[in-house]
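Person: Please comment on this record:
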Amino acid sequence: MVGRLPVGMARSSWHSICTVSEDEVIQTVRRHFESLFPKVCPNCGRRFDTLRDYILVTRRIGLTKSYDAELGEWKTTQPIGSVAMANCPCGSTLALTTEGMMLSKRLALLEWVRVETGRRGTSPTEILEHLRDKVREQVLEESNE
């Protein structure tokens, strides 16, 4: 697969990955997560109308995980994806995932994480946790304005 673009990745998207800013990555992730709402807990039926509601009511658990990054599958054509988990007040575990995100965006984000781990000398999990914190900060700050 050396020298070839992943399936579903436009050449313009692939070449622009390295010039994508952290702010653009945060906005992409945030928009995707916001699109997952409303969300309902399958255990108790509690409804989370917005990402903000979800952040305020759930309790974050575990670390954000990219299965592809953990496997070293940076240029996969079939990404498994990433997951961030939280507990509903009833105790049930809920998840926000990259499932449903356009393939080109998923691959671009995965490549951005790969580049940033090398540049920052840190793990993919640390990068993803940083992004999670930033999305959370933005959502909560905007609700206070």
User: Anything to note?
Assistant: Residues 1-17 have pLDDT under 50 and may be disordered. The longest helix spans residues 124-143. The radius of gyration is 16 Å.
